[in-house]
Amino acid sequence: MTVSQKDFTAGILDPTRPAPEGLLDGKGAQTSKRFDVYRNNVAVSLTDALVAAFPVIYKLVGDEFFRAMAGVYLRTHLPDTALMMYYGDKMPQFLKRFPPAQSLAYLPDVARLEIALRESYHAGDATPVSADVLGTLAPEALMAARISLSPALRIVRSSHPIFGIWQSNMIADAPALVKRAENVLVTRPQFDPTPHLISDADADFITALQRGHALGVAMSKAGQGFDLGALLGLLLRQGAMTHIS
User: Contact at 8 Å (CB) between 94 and 66?
Assistant: First the structure.
């Protein structure tokens, strides 16, 4: 009897199901025990991948909660690629619907930040522009310039203090958490991604640049109180600007 992929997958995902009928070893004997070991190894491997992908969420909810949650997640969201560094991309949406996590409304946005950091780490390389290139442009040319940003750059907006939560769980002696909405800019100046707390105006400006708007138009999107020099300085220091045209 041939075992279908559908039955095999269903057996892997449901620990209460017996081994698929017809799954035999080389001697023609039913392989229930071996299948149970394989099923357990799959669950453990995917759970460990999620622990590695979401270290802050793991710390926030604790080992027991996280592993129970991961068991539910992996049975409804199988990997769609063999590259395990991308596993868990549906976690923010999952957390919004997962009943035991409803009292922790910030978890989906923390997951979004952790995914952004992971995506930034694995993004392609790009050569940054020289720090003095902006100084060579006349004011009119500067306002009309279009700035390309690094493929490793990410922005995460949240109504929760996700930057403070990340700091509190990843950095020793981090500042006290302030309950507020926070935007996070993720850059990767060298090999590791770095999160930065930015204002709404900063986030609006960068988003406008990402959409292809000229610098002057991006400034108008940022509104009053926007500090162009400070943000451009940050982007230059982080190697986040890759082309100016």
Answer: no
